[in-house]
Amino acid sequence: MKNIWMVRAGRKAYLVEDFISQGLIAIGWNSLGDLSKVDELEQIKSLLVGKFPEMKLGSIYSAAGQIYRFRKEIVKDALVLTYNPSERVYWLGKVTSAYEFKEGEFDYHHIRKVSWEYQIDRDRLSASTRNSLGSISTIFKLPEEAATEVLTMANNQELPAELPEEEELEQVKDDIEDKANEFLKDKIVKLNWEEMQELVAGILRAMGYKTQVSPKGPDRGKDILASPDGLGLEDPKIVVEVKHRKGSMGSPAVRSLLGGLRQNDKALFVSTGGFTKEAKYEAERANNHLTLIDLDLLVSLIYQYYDNFDSESRTLLPLKKIYWPI
After folding, report:
1. What is the rounded CA–CA span in Å between residue 222 and residue 263?
2. Cβ neighbours, 10 Å, residue 21
3. Helix-strand-coil split of the chain, %, nearest 5
4. Alpha-carbon gap, residue 70 to 8, rounded angstroms
5. Which position has the higher pLDDT, 230 or 36?
6. pLDDT at position 166 over 70
7. Three-class SS state of 236
8. Above 90 in pLDDT, residue 1?
9. What are the start-end ranges of the E strands in 142-264?
């Protein structure tokens, strides 16, 4: 089966009518000039660095990948898809030319000619395919199942029986939640140790406790002290140790924390690297109540209490709420 490439028509598809009426696809980055003699990804990265020295490295890599796909991977006779959101219609066509650079004729100067042949109603597509077409990338290759469905509809063939839409939407929601969890973990892992300590303290404040965060230096396992009054005079008094590193914490680290607790103290051990089985066993049989918090549980607590985060904690980990139809 041929690959199908999605090529978006600018921000919010403002160029989609020009794409269709003029029979083309195009991308921006006009200041890079003619790329006809540029064949390597590294060459495009170098051009971007030269033209946009203020761009972050991650943005350079992302943009270079998009430009390279348009320049080299989308070839003559390739199938391409673009979307008109106002009409909720996808257009499917075939590339009919090699790469061209044309100034003055169009907002975007990197161009390929296209023969647009089919219109596909978005509302007829399955929920899973609609989700796969929702990538934020300007250019991307459709997953095989989505490409098969698009070609089937383009040829006016009957689609195989599919799950009820409610079940498909539930699967899509689960997939998006999984991705959101992983993205949030990525953000947490990139925090430095002091930021991580402040984040954990922020979660405890969102839960209704007042906190004292230890300054730099030896703290005998007491990175944070949380209690109703903030002074540790009222119960429960919670001692918190934070380990922000790769690698699981073992039983010696758990025993060390427990050894510094008083009789009525409760404790939290936060480890972004997780815990070994031996560490979990040590915590379960401890006389003091000790809760181990790994990265998954930390993410769950953030979701649960984020609405109560103070401004300092939100600055450390800014999140946006997304509403989902039920």
Report:
1. 15
2. 9
3. 40, 20, 40
4. 12
5. 36
6. no
7. coil
8. no
9. 210-213, 224-227, 238-243
